Amino acid sequence: xxxxxxxxxxxxxxxxxxxxxxxxxxxxxxxxxxxxxxxxxxxxxxxxxxxxxxxxxxxxxxxxxxxxxxxxxxxxxxxxxxxxxxxxxxxxxxxxxxxxxxxxxxxxxxxxxxxxxxxxxxxxxxxxxxxxxxxxxxxxxxxxxxxx
Length: 148
Hints:
Elements: E1 2-3, E2 11-13, E3 16-17, H1 30-41, E4 51-54, E5 57-60, E6 65-66, H2 69-72, E7 83-86, H3 98-110, E8 115-117, H4 125-138, H5 140-147
Parallel strand pairs: 2-7, 7-8
Antiparallel strand pairs: 1-2, 3-6, 4-5
């Protein structure tokens, strides 16, 4: 939840933390290097316990979690419309409990002033799309995110 230096977005919002590596491409993930750096610079950032240093550099340790309530509810306090990049440091839909996904989608649905941006971090978009589509048939908030 910060002003972004990324030129195509206004803010980043990272309501989830961590990842579970699933493919060889995960070895090149910039987010695990950033998480390691942030965790060392700001011990209270909640990233330090999600990454471990290996001989090949920082790697996610497989732990995933929701961010603090203050971070999760931040978009509800934003007064001005903006473009928000969701989970630049994680992947919201990949291998997470649906309760985490539902909590984030609920905030997205309630924050209708914002333009929400996301991207696929994994190598398995078909499996991820199937998982999301099963959930979106049952949950109104997920359908809103799917349309955006």
